[in-house]
Design brief:
Layout lengths: L11 H8 L4 H20 L4 H10 L5 H15 L5 H32 L3 H8 L8
């Protein structure tokens, strides 16, 4: 690990100047660690509403449903899906999209409670928008 030479007492600007000396991989690791501190500090003071929203946000799609969805997507990509499976895929897609929409609603409510932009709250929670191909 690279060493950064610092004075014993630092202002925030001095600390930032020191951090800027880090090589890119170390800087990214440092930023990641800083970002993990914020939710830990905030989690100590969560309201009941925030806790409930976080539980809903993190509930996700049931594993069995996600597995079947992935199987059907793979079959469709291989052009090996029959009409019944395709109809099932459409129903599962609708279900998953509705669950995703609900999750976004919960994230928006959480962002409003925290008085922060949605993107900031998602970043704090480690949630990334899906990359569609």
């Amino acid at each position: 690990m690279p060493m950064v030479h610092l004075q014993a007492e630092l202002t925030s600007k001095q600390l930032l100047d020191a951090v800027m000396q880090l090589p890119q991989p170390e800087l990214e690791n440092f930023i990641f660690k800083i970002n993990t501190l914020r939710p830990k500090q905030e989690s100590r003071n969560l309201s009941r509403t925030e806790s409930e929203l976080l539980l809903k946000i993190n509930s996700g799609v049931p594993e069995k449903l996600q597995k079947r969805y992935d199987e059907l997507i793979a079959k469709r990509q291989e052009m090996a899906i029959d009409s019944e499976e395709y109809a099932e895929l459409l129903k599962l897609t609708d279900r998953i999209e509705k669950a995703d929409a609900k999750r976004i609603e919960y994230l928006i409510k959480l962002a409003r409670i925290r008085k922060k932009p949605l993107a900031v709250v998602m970043n704090e929670l480690g949630i990334r928008a899906p990359e569609y191909v």
